[in-house]
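User: Just a sanity check before I run the rest of the batch. Below are the structure tokens for the first item. I only need the designed sequence back.
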């Protein structure tokens, strides 16, 4: 990307969770972790060597200062982070040994929800990529306007956009969410969507059919995240590839999808093949589930296996093995 920045925008949120897999009321202490889907993306892609910038709003409070410190420590550009009098969003999160996860959000009237068109930069001269998620427009009308403004700026300047729907039923009703998110699909170059979202957004439960429908909407590259079955993708030339999952000792799934997105985008920015990009993405997602936190397990570039690390600097001499999608 010739030194240009990957920009993302959204709500930074501070999570408080037990340090052991017990219910919150049974825990003697809670560990604070800075997160939010877009912030997780910004951190994860920065760890892979891509300069990143986070656009958002935090409160003039201890959680807000914690967010700023985390961004500074991760070398994420926070020059577009506005400080407001409203409180920084918080949530309590349980992670239990039987796999149950339960979040309790405290984000109503948060600083992050006041993000607006006026917070958006006038110029994207040093921006080479924009990443957006469906969470941000769900937070408020002004947040939706900010996302629309950034998409328009990216379109005007020919900047590639990646989009993860990140559909959260708790944030808005299905009809409003669909009406808002479906038009965003056609405005992105890369769609990164979960298996549980394709029926809601693309009208099919079949991953291969979902690739076809996204392509018909004008998406150049679509990735369907299949969880334990790996990932499936269609590239701009119509090629369809499947990448098997990377083995992991799953502890906490939160943030895995964000790290997956960052790994895929970082590899694509570096010019990696579709399959190579899936390989990097899968590795990043797998490492995150092995650690408790929002992005704690997101790997640094030098922590990737050599065959995958080479995709961030140039194609390796030995390609990854794969299989064609059924029917291809």
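Assistant: Here's the designed sequence for the first item:
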């Amino acid at each position: 990307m010739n030194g240009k920045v990957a920009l993302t925008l959204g709500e930074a949120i501070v999570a408080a969770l037990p340090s052991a897999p017990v219910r919150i009321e049974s825990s003697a202490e809670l560990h604070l972790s800075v997160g939010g889907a877009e912030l997780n993306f910004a951190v994860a892609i920065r760890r892979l060597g891509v300069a990143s910038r986070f656009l958002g709003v935090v409160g003039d409070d201890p959680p807000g200062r914690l967010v700023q410190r985390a961004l500074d420590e991760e070398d994420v550009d926070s020059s577009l982070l506005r400080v407001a009098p409203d409180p920084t969003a918080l949530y309590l999160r349980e992670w239990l040994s039987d796999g149950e996860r339960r979040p309790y959000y405290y984000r109503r009237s948060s600083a992050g929800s006041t993000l607006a068109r006026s917070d958006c930069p006038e110029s994207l001269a040093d921006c080479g990529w924009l990443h957006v998620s469906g969470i941000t427009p769900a937070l408020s009308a002004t947040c939706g306007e900010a996302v629309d403004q950034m998409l328009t700026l990216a379109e005007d300047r020919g900047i590639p956009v990646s989009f993860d729907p990140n559909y959260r039923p708790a944030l808005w009703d299905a009809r409003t969410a669909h009406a808002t998110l479906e038009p965003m699909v056609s405005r992105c170059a890369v769609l990164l969507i979960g298996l549980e979202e394709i029926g809601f957004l693309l009208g099919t439960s079949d991953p291969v059919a979902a690739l076809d429908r996204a392509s018909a909407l004008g998406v150049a590259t679509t990735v369907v995240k299949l969880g334990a079955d790996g990932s499936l993708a269609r590239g701009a030339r119509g090629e369809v590839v499947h990448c098997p999952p990377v083995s992991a000792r799953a502890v906490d799934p939160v943030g895995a999808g964000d790290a997956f997105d960052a790994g895929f985008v970082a590899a694509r920015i570096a010019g990696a093949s579709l399959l190579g990009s899936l390989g990097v993405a899968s590795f990043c997602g797998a490492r995150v589930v092995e650690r408790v936190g929002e992005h704690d397990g997101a790997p640094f570039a030098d922590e990737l296996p050599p065959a995958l690390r080479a995709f961030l600097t140039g194609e390796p001499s030995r390609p990854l093995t794969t299989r064609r999608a059924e029917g291809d």
